[in-house]
Amino acid sequence: MAVLTGVTSWNQDDVLHLGRRAGFGLSPERAAALAGQDPSTVVDAWVDGTLAGAAEVTAFEAALAHADPVDEGAQGSTEFPVAAVPGPHPYLVGGANAWRNDLARAQAALAFRMQHSPHPMAERLALFLHNLFATGQAKVGSTALMLVQQETLRALCTGRFEDLHAAVSKDPAMLVWLDSILNRADGRNVPNENYAREAMELYSLGADNGYNQQDITELAKALSGWAYTVRDADRVKDPRNADGWAVARGTFRVFDGAPAGGERSWSDVGAATPPASLPRRRIDGVAPVRFLDRDFADVNAPPTGQAKGEDVLRSIFSSRTAQVATFLAGRLVRHFVTGAPSQADLDGVRDLLVGNGLHLGETLKALLKSQWFYDPANRFALVQGPVDWTVRAARALCDDLATADAATAAQNRFPAWALVTDTFDLAGMRHLDPSGPNGWNEDVAWLNSNTARYRAKLAAGIALGETFQQGGADRMLFPSDPVRWFPAAAFPTGPSSAQAVLDRLVALLQPAPLPAEVQADWLGRLWPAAFTWDAASQQKARELAFLILCSPSGQLA
Fold it and tell me: How far apart are CA 335 and CA 146, in angstroms?
């Protein structure tokens, strides 16, 4: 059974394990510094996002405001006049007039955040929760709304799961994705049950775990009329369609005939003037509702601060607490700890969740401090997904934020993420656009003969210094300098041997233990003669990094 009491020892390898599983890796230098601190303090700050100093946060926010991590100008994206899009908005990166109206650029903006954010746990949790609340751009049809959903996941990822579940249920991208906007009175008063079903099956309880078809129907009735409106400030002329409008952000509303308040229906975003009132789309006769063995006398008069029907939705967490905890324990454990937990392990994490009131942050703090999390059997025991695997490699080998940001005046030195995000899809994860609400299977499901091929392409872009043409000149996809992989403090004249190169790259990339015979074979082939740290050896260091990333050991965290 999982030992969920706190760790009794704490060293650099423990910190590196934390960084790989609950972020996107840490440098050995940073891990060594954190190993000298109290583990409980480090984990709490890691989850809360308070490890970074004010200067680091300020630098990151400044880079978000002016950096060009996805080659916006060079790749032909459409720009709006500044005045047309009141800001700031979360989908604006690279200046107040550059809108990420393209899936590749939205993926690139998120990859940039993952690579450089001073709060990596929030970005890692947003990635994890995107798989749990899997929502797809292809049906939503609005990159901006997809990015707003990411903002919601990031903001609520360490709070109460009930609050996150309710917020996602009211999120405009989700309202479109699972047809909540179609759950409305249509003359027959037959509810659309898509979201009500998945709110339990995929997002809180698991299949057939404490509910039945009648519960689905009753919840769908309670949630009828849920949709979103658009304010003037959040609609802009669509540059791809002279007669159309693009929606930047939606505001959740229950369409029950109430005054529109100057807002437009999502279906009337192009109307010249806002309507006086919203359409009446609540299904008639939704009260009383009997849901999960409880009676709700009047779902049109919810508790203060809640939408009509929201009290019914939230009752999942009070009436089926143990079932929610069982469902959530499985998702957390298989993503952060092990792909093969025992039932006793899952039961222990379930009890931890119940004891913490289904609070994600407090549960994760306990889990990431536990002896079980750091058990040797759980290290390098999970295959990383293609997005976090790629980002971790980029964080290890590419220019850091300060170096890249300092070079932007003369030449953009940030990775050209928009040119490679399609490879995420080919490697098994089309970020922001899963094929269905089930999301992606994890761990060993990430790897097959085809996805491994595209991981090799990503590894080549990161490690080998591959270039593309920009402005008539060659530019690296992932700017890096092998010399900087060997800091002067530890390597005053560079590495002294081929083995020193390998040891440093292993420390940076942190693969699972590499067989001794494999290491010897690599070094013998790359440096068959005397070692000299020159330009040729620096290129060979790139090739060695590529081999580590492509090895079986390099896929694990």
Answer: 23
